[in-house]
Amino acid sequence: MKTLSNEEIRNDQPKEAAADKSRQKQRRRRRSGGSGKRRQEEKTWSPSQYVVPEVEGKVRFHDFNLPDDVLHAIADLGFEYATGIQAETIPAALEGKDIIGKAQTGTGKTAAFLLGIITDLIDYPIEEKRRYGEPRALIVAPTRELAMQIASDAEELSKYADLHVVSLVGGMDYDKQRQLLKKKPVDILVATPGRLLDFVNSKEVDLWNVEVLVLDEADRMLSMGFIPDVRSIIRATPRKGQDRQTLLYSATFTDDIMNLAHQWTLDAVQIEIAPEKKTSENVAQKVFLVSSKEKYKLLRNYIRINNIEKVIVFGNRRHETRSLSERLQKDGISAALMSGEITQQKRIRTLEDFRSGKIQVLVATDVAGRGIHIDGVTHVINYQLPDDPDDYVHRIGRTGRAGATGTSICFACEDDSFMIPEVEAEAGVKLECIHPTEDLLAELK
Questions:
Q1: DSSP for 235-279, written as a single string
Q2: Predicted pLDDT at 25
Q3: Which of 130, 202, 211, 304 is the most buried (most CB within 10 A)?
Q4: What is the maximum span of the chain, computed from C-alpha positions, in angstroms?
């Protein structure tokens, strides 16, 4: 006997039932010509307290007609003007359109899709009793760090709204995640593919009421072999179109990515925010020409003289980064290591301490560094030039994020200075090469 897939079962539903479900979805979410209902209650905060002057060529968050609860959270975070991806994504998302977005890391795309989701959930509350484990919005990301960062951002942006955000990622306590699902109905679920499927297969998560699906960093999910899992996840959600809004983001638009995007979206708006240079113009880039013996003095003095509060230092090998982290700690610098040898629990604690300011210097390898998405990093220091020039682009993408300015410093010595032309070619910039001043090479006290 043939076993029908979830997709086939749904397609076999009576047309009246499918139409009813579609109408229910439209009542919950903003569609063209639709209207929502916002909570009206006594508040001590008013949008009049969030003053952002109009500037020609810039879009303010006021201009999107977002709920007061959302504007309050944005004001707390100090955001004023939308980035390019936000300015284009938010209006289309609020209209209920599917989106295929091309954007590099650090462009503010996470806030772009979260603001649309949170607004819809506030504007279109579900009055009837909801079951646990049935999220209204689902965000799928390729790595634990990225998923947890998105969940953290979602909590910050929805902190004045009565929304429940849950993250399901591998390498974390399964029972604790199960308890979070049972705490209250889930509004926003952020997950990695494998762990999400574990919960779906055990029937502790039901995706049949997902109204908005976000697939973030689709190109990485493709390269990491997650597409079969993602297909299984999508089959467990409602059909694309009016039953499910889909937003797919990728740093690249290869043929494979576009084929997947067209399979999973319907009449999608295509948005491309790709800088001409591979590296952000917001990041000042320079190279210090120094001997290998002087690198540590330069690092220690540069951090101290410039009063740097949040910096990521990249090295090429685990043992080198471990040694560097330990040496900084002995010199009284609040430093921590981020490499593949660190357990997942410790990595999460380290990132939280770095984000909160308890840790001043994060020493990382390239593999670990790609998962770091933390705003407020003012400097990236390449203690060693990377073996692969492409890694340089990823390294400096950790600073100058979401419109902020940043600084990238390379320490080039006799062992790796030959890499400078290759790095310049890959990054599409001419690096300023200078010799450190005497105070930067002074003996450590």
A1: HTSPPSSSS-EEEEEES---HHHHHHHHHH-SSPEEEEE--SSSS
A2: 43
A3: 211
A4: 81
